[in-house]
Amino acid sequence: MQSSMPALLQEYSRLKPMAEHFELFTASTRELRDLEQLCSDADQAVASLARQELALAKHQVRQREEALLLTMLPEEEDVQRAAIVEVRAGAGGAEAALFAAQLLDLYQRFARSKGWDFEVLDVSPADLGGVRTASAAVSGDGVFGRMRYEAGVHRVQRVPATETMGRVHTSTASVVVLPDANQEEMAIKDSDLQIDTYRASGAGGQHVNTTSSAVRITHLPTGTVATCSDQRSQIKNRAQAMRVLCARLYEQQRLRRQEATASERRAQGAGNADRNERIRTYNFAQDRITDHRCGVVHHNLEEVMVSGDEAAESLDEIHDALAWASRLQALQSIVQNG
């Protein structure tokens, strides 16, 4: 009996919200039936009041029916996993590199506000400040389920510090979010790996630049590559690169599974960072963040980019809206496919 308790508790946690939504739905349907009966009441005043409330009651029944059906959907794959977040400067030169660094900092503050662990795995600094590429491991409850909505191309519109004419420039950075995995889980053979070491370049001190501490790991069957040069130790760089490689390979498998089950979710990816391909725009001149997928707009951009609390509030609202839309899409797919 004791061994079955965790399973029973898990099943209770799954069924409890379903039962609560069912009670709300049945209460709404009873209220609707009562109003429909009152609409034909002999007392015209009562009937008139009932007809006025009827439309609202029907809307509430539809809403609660939808909410009930959403609780019946199985939990989406991998939402409870940790995540590997990769940020890459796109179009816009030095300004894009500065923006990429800001996004990395934004995610670190967001993670801290959620009580998650945020570990920078690798950073390739740009010559004039900012980063060309960077990756971080984010660990905690439900990290991938939230951070996956950051995947895509982010666009920034502002006047760069080097702009003498006061003109607004548009730059981009791309974000990839991968579910975390490990070598044992992926069953990767050592014979499938090619491991190269080389000297790191850029910031990091004399030791980093004069020893072959940087590591590149290639998964030969797929050609997938992961590198790390941020740590002083070759052993640490190898471990970090292996972690990123496993996450990329796991993501490839995950997307293949989605395609095999006719999933309508689109694969995450950095795209080509074209200025016209975007999920979100950060307009500093108008102090506005706009997420183009769900239409959520915030007018506290400056605070969001410097405050953990503001970042959490803004990103949480965007993530909640996208999560709701995703579950609705999944529900519609189930209904359409019978």
TrEMBL record:
Span of the signal peptide: none
Species in which this protein is naturally found: Dunaliella salina (Green alga)
UniProt keyword terms in alphabetical order: Methylation, Protein biosynthesis
Family: Belongs to the prokaryotic/mitochondrial release factor family.
Protein name: Protein chain release factor A
Tree of life domain: Eukaryota
Chain ranges of the Prokaryotic-type class I peptide chain release factors domain: 199-215
InterPro entries: PCRF (IPR005139), Pep_chain_release_fac_I (IPR000352), Pep_chain_release_fac_I_sf (IPR045853), Prokaryotic/Mito_RF (IPR050057)
